[in-house]
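Hallway conversation turned thread

IA: we were arguing at lunch whether anyone had actually written out Protein of uncharacterized function (DUF3279) end to end. Turns out nobody had. So, for the record, here is the sequence (128 residues) and right after it the structure tokens. Reply here if something looks off.
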Amino acid sequence: MYAKSFISRNAHGHLVSALTAQKSSNGEYTCHLCNSALVFHRKTTHSKPWFEHIDAGLSEHGREHCPYVNVAFEEIATVEALRTFVPKALPLVQRGHWHCRCCSNAYYGEKYCLACQCGAHSQIEVTD
């Protein structure tokens, strides 16, 4: 099981939301972080449209570093436990100011350095 993604790149390399992909015909989509192939899941009565990594399309880099593929076990356990109390609860993504110790890149958003293409060397910056 991989984490749901609501953004990807289309065959032309443009960022596409799942809602936008819903409006267009079937296309090829790749992860905006690791360039691995994604499968598009259309909107149903119970869920919004979303993208998912597939085993056959995973790049080596994606298998090792993509946060949508390598979801922390603790995070999965916490989400499942919360769903017993609040069935429709969605997980929060931690966003913040990050500093990558590997390349010294400073960035904002999810813990994933686009320069290094991983989040393993990043730590959150504390602001006063």
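OS: looked through it. The chain has a mean pLDDT of 85.
IA: good, adding that to the notes. Helices lie at 18-23, 60-65, 73-85.
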